[in-house]
Amino acid sequence: MSFSPGSCSPVVSDTTATPSPSPKAQAARERLLDTAERLFAEHGFNGVSVRDITQQAGSRLADVNDHFGGKEGLFKDVIARRACLINVDRFARLDAILVGQPKPEAVRAWVEAFSVPLLMRAQESEGWRHYLRLIARLSTTRSGVLMLVADQFNPVALRFVAHLGLLLPHMDARQRLNAYQFMVACAMAVFVDNFRLDTLSDSAVRSSDFEANHANMVRFVAHGVLGMAA
Amino acid sequence: MSFSPGSCSPVVSDTTATPSPSPKAQAARERLLDTAERLFAEHGFNGVSVRDITQQAGSRLADVNDHFGGKEGLFKDVIARRACLINVDRFARLDAILVGQPKPEAVRAWVEAFSVPLLMRAQESEGWRHYLRLIARLSTTRSGVLMLVADQFNPVALRFVAHLGLLLPHMDARQRLNAYQFMVACAMAVFVDNFRLDTLSDSAVRSSDFEANHANMVRFVAHGVLGMAA
DNA sequence: GTCTATAGCTTGATAGAC
DNA sequence: GTCTATCAAGCTATAGAC
Fold this sequence. Notes:
homodimer, Tetracycline Repressor, domain 2, 10 helices, globular, DNA-binding
């Protein structure tokens, strides 16, 4: 798996070179992906039927099987469509960190390399926000179909863990993995947008205020990593 | 809702005073709760059928409706059965924190008041470990049925947020809520036990080593809270 | 490729005997 | 309360006309 800037090709499920999938068909495909993304994020894989998706996408029941090979194939394409775009941004930021700079700044940059690409996308479109909620949901899952998310994000995890080893070489393997694990958990908590903050504060603080919550998250995680390492 | 030590009554769904539900029936009830807990944690509410549960519990299909009023009632009872036990332990620890002690120790005690009760239970039985994985999973959810978890844990959240205001009075409302939110996220990450650490380390580090991961988590969160507040 | 119709199965819930 | 048998609805996937 490569993550060079140009490596995020539009999703193509089959290996045969389809010459041109017809613009109208392509639009229908995107509508199905968008609708599935939203519904999977809201109700989970098993909480959504192919009928729900095709009806709300204004499509036909059989389209999911014709275009994606079934419900599971549709789910996989939903995940894959946006994963690479995030990861390219992350690696660009990770590579820009200077190992020579002071530890607090470097660790903060390490956190932001992971999370700022999420924040940018969250501000970009509602589709991205649905995607981030879906990813957050999958991060607390371990069963069957949904584990393919791990395959999409394992290379990211390994590079971030390795990079943390460069910044703070005295951390042991468990500390580095825990640091990454807790960073992911906090980042997902920001973008899962589950109204928890609203409920607890009578809507004085909102889960949907990603910018403010993200800023606090970066401070929290950076200090957490440094403190755990000390 | 009260959380005095004796307030965790065995789960009784109806409001009428059932005199004695027969010991054999009670055992069957517990077996259904245990099995449902395990399967819901593994596959989610929608990923499990009533048939799955009753078959694996050695029970009859109709028992779920007869004893719990349906699948949803069973789910609610699974959640409620153990929630109060955790929260009683938490409040006992929270009340034992001396506001006079130095900040780092007090904040660490605040984190442990939340998380040590989870650790103790995780070491107690497999049933508890299933329960914790279920709770972790629900923490990244916001749809319908599953939101009742929020009702179970809102009083806890409010008291922890308020107590943090006593310890670090200069934090604003958003910072206190974010601190609690990130603590929950990190604690859930420890107990979700999703093999993520094992995968990334070739099993050199294990998600199931709750004690070691919890210890790092407490350090991480305590420093994160203090750092965010600074 | 597009689309209708439907097969074949599983779902949650219940009726009704005991 | 316990238990069997069954219902009506919904499910994913596909066959086959165009």
